[in-house]
Every structure is written in structure tokens, then in C-alpha cells.
Amino acid sequence: MVFHPAPEFPDLRGGPLAAGFYAAAERATPQTVDQLERSGAEIVVTDILTVAPALAAELRGLPYATLVPHPFPLPASGHPPFSLGARLPETALGRLVWRSLAPAVRKGLIAGREDLNRIRHRLGLPPRSSLDGALSRELVLVGTFPQLEYPRPWPGHVKVVGPLIWEPPAKPVCDPPGEGPLVLVAPSTSQDPDHRLLCAALKGLAGLPIRVLATWNGRPPKQPLPDPANAVVVPWLSYRETMARAQLVVCHGGHGTVARALSLGRPVVVCPVAGDMFENGARVAFAGVGARLPRRLIAARPLRDLVASGLADRRLFSRAAALKEWYARSNPPAQAAYLVEALAGKGRVA
Q1: Does residue 188 sit in helix, strand or coil?
Q2: pTM recorded for the entire structure
Q3: pLDDT tens readout for residues 32-91
Q4: CATH topology of domain 2-165+330-346
Q5: What is the assigned CATH class of domain 182-329?
Q6: SS3 2
Q7: Helix ranges (DSSP H) in the chain
Q8: Contact at 8 Å (CB) between 146 and 158?
Q9: Which of 48, 29, 18, 33 is nearest to 112 (CA)?
């Protein structure tokens, strides 16, 4: 088996990406074919954004599975478009409003399919008629909690297995002294370079009877951070270790951070600033396992009020605990491995 996370992004400063997403994939596909030949791979597992390994698998006649490491992004009837951060409508009128946008969404998907089919033609592959891009027709692994998915009909080959979580190693860190509940502030590693969320949290949570453990995640602040007596700020930390000790997690809403917190039964306060964070915040609110703060309101007082109300809302803790139990019972990595092995052995998923 070859797991291929990101082959068509070899250089973020130019080169293949300058010609466009699918052009980059086209350039990477022959190299990936060579890699598959050398490795003797029998199956390929590829991320939803990495098109080259999917194309290479087809050229080699190999089965391939697609991993979606967040909620499923393809539209369903009556659902808001993915990444807008809109809640699932509760009324027929709301569903009608979102259906009215379906033609525009479909137009974008058709344009993407045409771009992909031009690449497929040049590689000697037949065109695709579906609008699901390069997603596998044999097995799609959706790596999120089913509780975060809006209800929809699921194709048989699409399996919501649960989060597939990994994090780099980190040295142990000490919690702030005291007896109050511990709140972890876990900003994004890729967004918010000015540490707006971190500064707002340190200022806003300073007056609460809590302890704050925060990290700037390897992005040194350009200006001195607030230094409240109830907080400790570190360059890096282990989410798995620290979230297990925390009562609440404040984050931007990256799926990995949200999934880790919920796998440990910790409610989240999501403060999205970009991309899929808006969608993840909407799903957290939908599942009742946390709250979200709009980007325009990320400041000390709104964040303080939301954290205080979150710590007092036992419903959030009860629902987050239910997700922790589901995660432990379901064992998403083992389930995903079983499905991949089944595909490799039988060429299909039962």
C-alpha cells in the first residue's frame, strides 16, 4: 500500500503550482506512476486534495481510496454550500433558499470536472461524468465524527469512519498553578500570524477564576504577549496530553484540533478566521459540543463571556463526553484500516 498525502505540491514558491492545481497534478502523475511501479503497491490511499496519486493508480490499474480528513464537502439537497459556515436549515423555507444556490454550485463543479477531464484525456484516461472530482468510486473514508455530519443519504462506498488523528511529538509542559478549571488556548499553526486570538484570550480570561494554558504553536509573536497571572504560554505542546487535563479548548477551528478535543470529551470554543474553520465551527454548533465566535468579534470581552458560559453549560460537557465514548468504542483507525485492506483484497467494499 502507498499512502500519498501531497505529491503535487513539491514547491510552494513556484514551479508546478504556478500553472494551476490540475496542471500541477498532471506533472506529478508520471512521477507517482514510477513510484508505484518501484514499490510494487497493490492499493493507493490519497488525500482528497492530492489528485496525482489517484490518476496514477488508475493508470496502473490499482484500486485507490480517498481520505477526506474533515466533514464531507460535496453538496446535498437543501444543505448550505461547504465552507460558508452556515448551519443546516431547520425549515422548508431555509432549505429552499439553499436549493436556489444549487445551480451556481453545480456550475463550479462542472468547471472543475472539465479541467480534470482535460488532464485525464492527455494522460490517456477516459473522462468522468460525475461531479465528485477525483474521489474514489470504490472507497471514500470520511475522517470526522458522524455527529458532525449533516444528515444526508450516503453512497455505499462513502464511509464516515471517525477522526484519524496524528500529532507531532512534544515535550511535557506544566499547567498554571492553582485549582480553577484549566482552559487550553490552541491557535492555528497556519492562520492568524498576528496572534489576535491568543492575545484576546490572554486578556479576556485574565479576570476569570480559571487557569489558562496557551501556545503560540511555533510562530513566535512579533510583539510581547499579555502576561496574566493565571496563564502559562509555551511555544509548543501536545494536544493529546494537555487536552486530557483541560476542561475547555479555545481554538480557531482546524479540524485536527477540534477532533482531538472531542475525542477526549472536551467542548470547544471555535473562533474561525479562514477556510474550513467556518464550516467546522458550524458543525460544532450543530452537534451541540461547543460554541463559535464570529471573526469580527474575536476580542477580549466576547471571548471571556463565551468561555464563562461554556464552562457553566453542562450540556456541552455531556454531549462532548458522548463523542469521546463513541470514539473509543468505534476505533476509527482500525475501522479505516479494515476497509482499506478489504478493498485491497477484494477490489470492493462490502
Answers
A1: coil
A2: 0.89
A3: 999 999 999 999 999 998 999 999 999 999 999 999 999 999 988 888 888 888 888 888
A4: Rossmann fold (3.40.50)
A5: alpha beta
A6: strand
A7: 21-39, 51-60, 92-100, 102-123, 196-204, 239-245, 255-263, 276-287, 300-312, 314-330, 332-346
A8: no
A9: 48
